[in-house]
From TrEMBL:
Its EC number is 4.2.1.46. It is an enzyme of class 4 (lyase). This is dTDP-glucose 4,6-dehydratase. Belongs to the NAD(P)-dependent epimerase/dehydratase family. dTDP-glucose dehydratase subfamily. GO terms for biological process: nucleotide-sugar metabolic process. The keyword NAD applies. One of its GO terms (molecular function) is dTDP-glucose 4,6-dehydratase activity. InterPro entries: dTDP_Gluc_deHydtase (IPR005888), NAD(P)-bd_dom (IPR016040), NAD(P)-bd_dom_sf (IPR036291). Residues 8-311 form the NAD(P)-binding domain. It catalyses: dTDP-alpha-D-glucose = dTDP-4-dehydro-6-deoxy-alpha-D-glucose + H2O. Keywords: Lyase, NAD. Its cofactor is NAD(+). It comes from the Bacteria. The gene is rfbB.
Amino acid sequence: MTKYQNILVTGGAGFIGTNFVRYVITEHPDVKLTVLDKLTYAGNAENLADLPDDRVTLIVGDINDAQLVDKLMRETDAVVHFAAESHNDNSLTDPSPFMQTNLMGTFTLIEAARRYDVRFHHVSTDEVYGDLPLDETSRNEKFTPLSRYNPSSPYSATKAGSDLLVRAWVRSFGLKATISNTSNNYGPYQHIEKFIPRQITNIMSGIKPKIYGNGRNIRDWIHVTDHVAGIWEILMHGTIGETYLLGANGEQDNLTVLKKILQAMGKPVDDFEFVKDRAGHDLRYAIDATRTQETLNWQPKYLDFDAGLKQTIDWYQQNQAWWEKDKAKIEANYAKNRQ
Ligand code: NAD
Ligand code: DAU
């Protein structure tokens, strides 16, 4: 029998939350999930619509709603907390929802979790550690659980703050929490504001892909299925108070990734444009997941990035109706906010 039978998943209608819900429903038949999601522009109820009603319940609501959170927490054995404002570019245009959801929302949840002594897993990002240099001599440097917190953007600063809240609640109140910090995810259901789906759907819409700055910034890609499998393992077997880094040694610079997308979609590899750089743009992320792999039974399985990318392109091609209605609005926002 699975250790936790009733799990509350915040942000379960977003990209990673959806993949987590779908993973648990397939892999762990005795578990029931309640999804608490505000359905912001990034959440989509359709993502969960085909799942069995007796195992997945969607509650449309805000993690800042203390009364609702209290009620749900009473009925829950464990929480996996994905809900967040997640896009760096948006945080540069208007940081306020990031403060509200990422900081205050996490506060509301951990207060309720400690009240009812509920197991809590906090999903976070490698961006809390800031960035690594790009020069070749620093290539062996990677983030570890001991890396210094040094966030660059309003988004990553609020995620860093939320991690520190969780750590303090563990120490001061005995909250039964773990934290995971993970690198850039890719795969199905990712919002089209993000780099990989934005470029795939640009190409499908006859819009030139856009590269910020010189395109040399490096991201450490992990397939979303590997991420959610790692979260499950931490929830079941992680040590309370620990921070776990999840990564798949997937470092690539943005230009290389874009050229792979163009090639896979049958376009000339130079058919894109350079645009203004992101303010404060982090140079390089790289995760050292050794400690997680030594202490838990988790290994990334999607080690062929090109195959995972091809599968992701196929998904956006086969699910045009899922993203098409948002495309014009997202591109209009980019045009307005990145002048
Ligand atoms: P996303 O933007 O796709 O989804 C976020 C979800 O949270 C949406 O469904 C949205 O409706 C919901 N939400 C937002 N504010 C809410 C609120 N106040 N109350 C309830 N629900 C709310 O994000 P994602 O990419 O799936 O990221 C999920 C989590 O994983 C975030 O905490 C993010 O920081 C973290 N993370 C993301 C990545 C990545 O590469 N995408 C990597 C590491 C960690
Ligand atoms: O590292 C984990 C983080 O990865 C998560 O915490 C964030 O929630 C997630 O959004 C992601 O952050 P990034 O800022 O790295 O992801 P994004 O997809 O926005 O951009 C990836 C890289 O591509 C980054 O260097 C900026 C660049 N970029 C992005 C867009 C949208 C472009 O060159 N062109 C674009 O159009």
